[in-house]
Inverse folding.
């Protein structure tokens, strides 16, 4: 079980690194109109999205294995705990955020993205807040 926890933490940290950095690239992208810089940022975003997909799937698979390794045949009781349901709801929101980030990249690529760099600075804080609450839920299991 320790190996599964290790892989889960590794993939979660890696996925969050992508969720933190991609919107930061969008801040830079929204501030520039220079064609070479836009092309470079599009390439960086594209490569980061590929990494984000890998870490997303690693997070998901390791999470399923971790729940089963912790709860075994009692997994159904385990996933009915209040803290776990709240955590899954936040993770579902982060998955939505993940897909929203990819959609934004497509808008930048098409030249149709309208949000300002200020909006992206605020948008960039969403996963940090979600992470704080998820970590609290996992450690404290308050309900």
């Amino acid at each position: 079980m320790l190996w599964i926890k290790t892989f889960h933490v590794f993939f979660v940290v890696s996925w969050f690194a992508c969720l933190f950095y991609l919107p930061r690239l969008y801040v830079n992208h929204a501030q520039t109109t220079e064609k070479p810089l836009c092309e470079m940022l599009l390439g960086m975003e594209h490569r980061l999205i590929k990494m984000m997909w890998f870490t997303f799937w690693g997070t998901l698979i390791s999470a399923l294995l971790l729940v089963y390794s912790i709860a075994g045949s009692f997994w159904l009781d385990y996933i009915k705990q209040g803290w776990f349901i709240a955590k899954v709801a936040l993770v579902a929101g982060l998955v939505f955020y993940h897909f929203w980030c990819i959609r934004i990249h497509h808008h930048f690529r098409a030249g149709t993205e309208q949000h300002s760099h200020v909006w992206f600075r605020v948008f960039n804080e969403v996963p940090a807040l979600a992470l704080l609450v998820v970590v609290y839920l996992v450690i404290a299991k308050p309900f």
Q: What stands out?
A: The helical segments are 2-31, 35-71, 75-78, 82-110, 117-123, 126-140. The CA atoms of residues 51 and 77 lie 34 Å apart. The two ends are 24 Å apart (CA to CA).
